[in-house]
Write a structure and sequence with these properties.
alpha/beta, globular
């Protein structure tokens, strides 16, 4: 099988940019690369995710409980895997780079739960997606850690420039803060590699080149 590398982080943390830069870096190393993104808005399997993010199931992320929301996102990943990138992943010389994955469900949904339930939810999630659904587990997860104040400002700037409507996650600053705390916990528990993207108190992130260099260093042992 190939290698599955996942980039995670808050909305606005630069996952799309760093995914593209990592793909370019691996191609320069002579690797076969496939990039995937979640949610996969081009897939019919994403219909329920769109409903959730558009606020049709509730105006607040907490209106849809952690297990229900997880199943919506898992369905998107399952259909994408079976219909789109399974063949590439099963090729032993391909590096699949995912901009978000099952790992996003972890911290987004943990943020809705009391901390005493976090470990049991993570056990359920890994078993549900990787065992019951048969989705591949990542070989490496990189968490782009950015203060929620910087992340939120970047998301709103992007929305103003592009006219893109904020989803129910992006609108909720308190929710982003809870997600960051949950992501830090999950990264520590599961051995994710944390890539610092800004200092607390900063109003701007590090340059994309500085972050990209840290990402390349973090995946060196997979090459």
């Amino acid at each position: 099988m190939g290698k599955l590398i996942v980039l995670e982080g808050l909305d606005g943390s630069g996952k799309g940019t760093q995914t593209a830069l990592l793909a370019e870096y691996l191609k320069e190393k002579g690797k076969n690369v496939r990039v995937i993104d979640f949610p996969d808005y081009s897939s019919e399997g994403c219909t329920l995710v769109k409903m959730y993010l558009d606020g049709k199931l509730g105006d607040n992320p907490d209106d849809t409980n952690a297990y229900a929301a997880s199943m919506l996102f898992a369905a998107d990943r399952y259909t994408s895997y079976v219909m789109s990138w399974k063949k590439d992943y099963l090729a032993d010389d391909t590096y699949v780079i995912a901009n978000r994955y099952t790992t996003a469900n972890a911290y987004h949904q943990l943020s809705k739960m009391p901390e005493e339930d976090w470990d049991s939810f993570l056990s359920w999630l890994w078993d549900f997606e990787f065992s019951k659904l048969g989705l591949p587990a990542p070989d490496c997860v990189l968490l782009l850690d950015m203060p929620e104040s910087v992340s939120s400002a970047l998301v709103r700037k992007r929305s103003a420039e592009t006219g893109q409507i904020l989803d129910i996650h992006e609108k909720d600053h308190d929710y982003l803060g809870r997600c960051r705390r949950a992501a830090s916990y999950t990264a520590d528990k599961c051995g994710w590699k944390v890539i610092k993207c800004a200092d607390d108190g900063d109003v701007e992130p590090f340059t994309r080149e500085k972050i990209s260099a840290s990402v390349a260093e973090a995946v060196a042992d997979l090459l």
